[in-house]
Amino acid sequence: MAETTTEKSLIALRNHSEAEQRRRDRINGHLATLRTLFPSTKKMDKAELLSQVITKVKELKHGADEAANGKLLPSDADEILVEPHQDGASFSIRASLCCDFKHELLRDVREVMKSLHLKMERAEIATHGNRMVIIFVISGFNDADIVKLHVDYVRKNLQSVLDKVHASEELMSKRMDTRKRRRIGEMWLQES
Predict the structure, then answer these.
(1) Which strand ranges, in their side-by-side order, compose the sheet holding 90-100?
(2) pLDDT digits (tens, 9 = 90+) for 89-145
(3) Taking a C-beta distance cutoff of 8 angstroms, is the pair 38, 53 a contact?
(4) What is the DSSP letter of 125?
(5) For position 184, what pLDDT does the model report?
(6) Would you state the pLDDT for residue 20?
(7) Whole-number Å distance between alpha carbons of 108 and 81
(8) Alpha-carbon distance 131 to 98, whole Å?
(9) Are 160 and 112 in contact, with CB atoms under 8 Å apart?
C-alpha cells in the first residue's frame, strides 16, 4: 500500500510538472508574439518587454481618447438616452439613439421625430464601422413638467423604432433558418 501512495504522489508530481511546463510554454509563446510587435526587443528580458508593452498601450489609449475628444462616436451597446436640459428659463431635450447602422432605421427615426411635432434645434449622426449614433436636440419648452412628459414620449417613440429593427432582424433570421431546414429536408427526401 505504501508503494501505491508513492506511485500516486509521483504521478501527481509529474502531472503538475507537465501542466506547469505547458503554462510556461504558453507564456513564452505570447511573449515571443509581443517581441515581434515591438522593434529592438529581441534581447530584452520579460520584465522590460512587459514594461514597454504597458507604456505603448497607455500611449495608444491616450491617443484614442484625444482623437475621440469632442467627437461623436457610437458605442458598442444599443442604447437610447433622452435627457432634459435647462438653460436659464428655457428647457430642451437631448436624445440619442445608438445601434447598428440600418438605412431603414434612418427613415423610421425621421418619421417618428416628424410625428412628434416638436422644434428640432439640431440633429447629428455619426457612424463607425457598422455602428451609428444619432443625436437630437429638441427645444422650445418653457415648463419643466411638459419637458418631463416629452422626455418619456420621445424615449418611447425611439424605443419603438429600435424594437422594430430588432423584430425585423429576428424575422429575417427565422426566415433564413426555415429555408436552411427546408433545403436539408428536401435533400434527405431525395436520397431516400
Answers:
(1) 79-87, 90-100, 131-141, 119-128
(2) 788 888 888 988 887 888 888 888 888 788 888 888 888 888 888 888 888 788 888
(3) yes
(4) E
(5) 45
(6) 95
(7) 17
(8) 7
(9) yes
